[in-house]
Each structure stands twice: as structure tokens, then as C-alpha cells.
Design a protein that fits this description.
Layout (H helix, E strand, L loop, with lengths): L1 E10 L2 E11 L4 E5 L6 H10 L3 E3 L2 E2 L5 H5 L2 E4 L11 H6 L14 H13 L15 H14 L4 E5 L7 H18 L2 E5 L3 H4 L5 E6 L2 E6 H12 L2
Parallel strand pairs: 3-8, 3-9, 6-7, 7-8
Antiparallel strand pairs: 1-2, 1-4, 4-5, 9-10
Helix pairs in contact: 4-5
Length: 229
């Protein structure tokens, strides 16, 4: 589905990752973990821009911007705060790769937007200005936008960072359900190990300049060693 092959990533003079590879398949829900500053966000960005990224065996450089947006949806830590932007309008931005040249939504697009809002439990917020939302509420809306984009791959940077503990578990279960029921490939960076362990299929672990992926059954011991150094 999506893979990196022997890439190295640097920030200034510092090598963050050296000749690493990562293969993720359809239906896989994978948590990306590492210590602060390990390069999790850098790796997620690389998956959408590095020449070593392959989607279904083809380099992403061969995809137009529009086609790439139909393959990968991204939820970053950036907070969109725009006056008079309604919840449903923000979620509808996920339909941009599919609308006609003037950007008009068809009824099928509106149905997809409504379903995405419902999936994250934000029905009661339809009609609300996004600038009035809490960080946790806005995060749900951003995830709904990614769902509405209907891509086979979703990348998320710390999607549970601004949520309370019950909601963290709910969001992880929602993402796991998308992966397992709809066959999506989902990779998300997180420090919230407790929410990820019960539902993830695998963990991609950054340590030093290395990256390795392990099944969840083997992850607990790796995580304990990593964070107790």
C-alpha cells in the first residue's frame, strides 16, 4: 500500500533517520512512536513528499497533486482558527480532490460530509463556528475532514494530544474501525501508548536514527525498554 525504501532524513546537520524502510498494508492500523524530537513528524511529512515513497508500488513523484490528495489524507497538529468557518464547511474541504473545477459540492459529497461528522460524534456541532470549538472538538472535526476525503491512506500527527482520556480511546477505536472495516492504511504518531496498545496492529518505533516495525504482541517490551532508558 505505502512504503519507504532506504531513505535518510536530516534536520540541518543532524541525521534524524538513516537508511530506513517502512512497509504498511491495506487494513493496517499502526502507531508511530519515539522519544520527543525523534523525528515522528518529519517521517510523516516524508511519506507525502520524499522520492523514496511508493504507493501501490509506484513513486509518489508520478502522481499529480490532485491524485495524491485522493490517495493520502493528513491530519496535522496545526489548528485552523478562521472566523465564520462552520464545522460542516471545514469537513467539506476534504471533498476538494473530487469536486468540479468551481468546487461545488454535489449531493453525494454532502452525504459523505454528514457521515464523516457523524462518525466522530460531532452531529450536535453542525452550524457551529469552528473558532468557538475547544482543541479537542476541533481535533475531531479535523479527523472528520480526513474521513470525508475518502483516501485509502490516512496519516495523523498526534491525533489524541488535545483530548481527554475517554475521548482518546474513542478516537483510537474509531481509527482502528476505519482501518479494519474499510481496509484503510492508517499511521499515526502518538505518545498515548495506553490508548494505542489495545487496538493497533503494529508499532513503528524510532530509536536513534533507526526505524523498525513490530507487531503489537511484541511492542510492550520494546516500548518499556525505549522509554525507560
Amino acid at each position: 500500500m505505502i512504503q519507504l525504501e532506504n531513505i535518510s532524513l536530516s534536520y540541518g546537520s543532524r541525521t534524524i533517520l538513516r537508511e530506513v524502510s517502512l512497509h504498511l498494508v491495506a487494513g493496517e492500523f499502526c502507531a508511530l512512536i519515539g522519544r520527543n524530537g525523534a523525528g515522528k513528524s518529519t517521517l510523516l511529512r516524508a511519506l507525502t513528499s520524499n522520492g523514496g515513497t511508493l504507493i501501490d508500488g509506484s513513486p509518489i513523484a508520478e502522481l499529480s497533486t490532485e491524485k495524491l490528495a485522493q490517495k493520502i489524507a493528513i491530519v496535522t497538529t496545526e489548528r485552523i482558527r478562521i472566523e465564520n468557518l462552520l464545522v460542516e464547511d471545514l469537513v467539506a474541504m476534504g471533498r476538494a480532490p473530487y469536486t468540479n473545477w468551481v468546487g461545488h459540492l454535489q449531493e453525494v459529497d454532502r452525504d459523505i460530509v454528514r457521515e464523516a461528522i457523524n462518525a466522530v460524534g460531532m452531529d450536535d456541532f453542525v452550524g457551529r463556528d469552528t473558532s468557538s470549538l475547544s482543541d479537542g472538538e476541533l481535533q475531531r472535526v479535523m479527523i472528520a475532514r480526513a474521513i470525508a476525503q475518502q483516501t485509502p491512506i490516512i496519516l495523523l500527527d498526534e491525533p489524541t494530544a488535545f483530548l481527554d482520556i475517554p475521548t482518546r480511546f474513542e478516537v483510537c477505536r474509531l481509527l482502528a474501525d476505519l482501518a479494519h472495516r474499510q481496509g484503510k492504511c492508517i499511521l499515526f504518531s502518538t505518545h498515548d501508548i495506553d490508548s494505542a496498545l489495545p487496538v493497533c496492529d503494529s508499532f513503528a518505533i524510532i530509536e536513534g536514527a533507526t526505524l523498525r516495525k513490530v507487531p503489537t504482541a511484541e511492542a510492550a517490551a520494546e516500548i518499556e525498554r525505549l522509554f525507560k532508558r
